Amino acid sequence: MNNDAAIGIFDSGLGGLTVAKEIARLMPHESLVYVGDQARCPYGSREPSEIQEFVSQITNFLAGQRVKAIVIACNTATSCGLELAQSLVDIPVIGVIESGVSAALEATHNDCVAVIGTQHTIDSGAYLRTIRQQNSDIKVVGRATPEFATIVESGLEDKMLQSVQNQGEYYQLIEGYVRPLLEHSPDTLLLGCTHYPILAEALRIVVGPEVTIVSSAAKVAEELKYVLRDYSQLAGTEAKASHTFYTTGGKLENFTQSGFRIFGAELDRVHHLDLEELTL
Asked: Which terminus of the chain, N or C, has less C-beta within 10 A?
């Protein structure tokens, strides 16, 4: 595999751009190919077999782009499709759950971690199992927050923040979700969905300064760098990064505008990816 080959990244929509941003920041010479499956977002309420089919389709698509590694930048897809994706290709495939757990374990001091995520991610128990494997003394409390990903995909994060600042309807929504978790006195809130860091400022207002909010993005980037180094696949310092973005959704302009806010840079090459191309 060519060292200058791109890294493949995919998510159910825009959330995985939080991971892509950290990868680009840590490894500025690496090129990226990103797929946001907005036409079928959110994944969190779908059946595991359906999610696995999506994982299979997008993994094969990225392999066809001759990427050198794949990051499943979606907690839901990681929880039920990581091993499947790894079985389909002969390049490294990493998910986001173990990295999120590492961030939470580093952050907690009172050994109590709260986790929020999609319905499927929470119901799967993936975070509970992974945390307990690392440290059986950690208390883990979780709650599904299914509306949050949709808020991000709809571009309502600024409206949400303003509402929270004024203790409006979104403040009540967040409080209704996190109040039962805060009753357990966690000192760490793990964002178990890659969409959620986009809402971190609003969440921080509700949970208060005594709770540290963590996500998987930075840790995933670090893990990926170690993996590429082990495989002697890091791009050279002379390489010029080139990023390509695909969305299965219908409005490229919306993806480009929202993507700029999340990724922190212009999305120069944005293409529509027809679902028929994935299901051939």
From this structure: C
Active site residue 193: yes
Instruction: Tell me: pLDDT of 2 over 80.
Output: no
**pTM of model > 0.90:** yes
H or E element at residue 78: helix 75-88
Catalytically annotated residue among 41, 74, 80, 112: 74
Please give the backbone phi and psi of residue 92, each rounded to the nearest 5 degrees, phi first.
-60, 135
Alpha-carbon distance of 149 to 33, in angstroms, equals 22
The neighbour count for residue 101, using CB atoms within 10 Å, is 29
Q: In 3D, which of 215, 223, 226 has the Cα closest to residue 103?
A: 215
Closest C-alpha to 51, from 92, 80, 93? 80
Alpha-carbon distance of 75 to 118, in angstroms, equals 8
- 175 CB-near residues (< 8 Å, 6+ apart): 206
In the block, which residue shows the tokens 């595999």?
A: 1
Count other C-beta atoms under 10 Å from residue 201's C-beta: 15
Q: Which of the following is catalytic: 41, 80, 112, 193?
A: 193
Q: What is the pLDDT of residues 159-206, one digit of tens each?
A: 999 999 999 999 999 999 999 999 999 999 999 999 999 999 999 999
